[in-house]
Design brief:
Length: about 240
């Protein structure tokens, strides 16, 4: 390769730095556009809403059950009053019948007692559920706020990335003509094969692309090589530092 073929070799690492930064910005841009963070925040908010909905349904169920039991207790209480009235209003004189009524009143009292115990249990469960719902409401609010925030953040970050990309692409455009065409071509080929890194610094005999130490023999041979020096392990273009 003629001297011109090596033109701008010392700028290849600058190009590499710009290209890696562009790669990172584009990847982040895709990520934000794909809305992974927004998606995750939305999932959390939806789950919080669903949990809250389930709890509210459960609370409605408990309230209905309580109402049903209370009206049952009321109706038992009315029957009880009616039976008691019959005991004392003189309408029944037959002792056997009176005994049966007394027995019935006892039954009614016992049934009403059991129902009232159930109502008390339900009230305790409702109180507990009320407390759980208050916590779930707070979690739901938090999740909704986070979603709004992430949406806003993503929008701002996308704008910022787009501005930076414009700047970096201009820098790249200005830099590429400074470097020999063949060199850029080789660098691009290597970049495509080697996870975006086509050129690496050679520091103290160590390739910064693959972090392997080159043999003294190879380092010596390199000095006489025409054209770009390449790492004997990863084949990247080496720029001595
Ligand atoms: Zn290497």
């Amino acid at each position: 390769m003629a001297t011109d073929g090596m033109r701008g070799l010392d700028r290849l690492l600058d190009l590499q730095e710009i290209d890696l930064s562009i790669d990172r910005l584009e990847a982040r841009h895709r990520e934000l556009e794909g809305g992974e963070e927004i998606g995750a925040a939305r999932t959390l908010a939806d789950e919080a809403e669903r949990r809250l909905g389930d709890m509210r349904l459960e609370l409605d169920g408990l309230s209905r059950e309580q109402g049903r039991l209370e009206s049952e207790a009321d109706s038992l209480s009315r029957k009880e009053d009616a039976e008691r009235a019959r005991l004392y209003d003189g309408s029944v004189a037959n002792p056997k019948e009176l005994e049966a009524i007394r027995h019935e009143v006892e039954n009614l009292v016992a049934r009403r007692g059991r129902i009232e115990d159930e109502v008390l249990d339900l009230m305790v469960r409702r109180e507990e559920l009320d407390e759980t719902i208050r916590r779930a409401e707070a979690e739901h609010r938090e999740a909704r706020d986070r979603l709004t925030e992430v949406r806003g953040e993503a929008g701002r970050e996308l704008d910022e990335i787009e501005r930076t990309l414009v700047t970096r692409r201009k820098e790249r455009e200005a830099l590429v003509p400074v470097i020999a065409e063949d060199l850029v071509e080789l660098y691009e080929e290597l970049r495509a094969q080697k996870r975006g890194v086509g050129a690496a610094a050679l520091v103290d005999g160590v390739c910064q692309g693959c972090h392997q130490k080159l043999s003294p023999l190879e380092l010596d041979r390199m000095k006489r090589v025409e054209g770009p020096r390449r790492c004997e392990y990863c084949r990247r273009i080496l720029i001595p530092r």
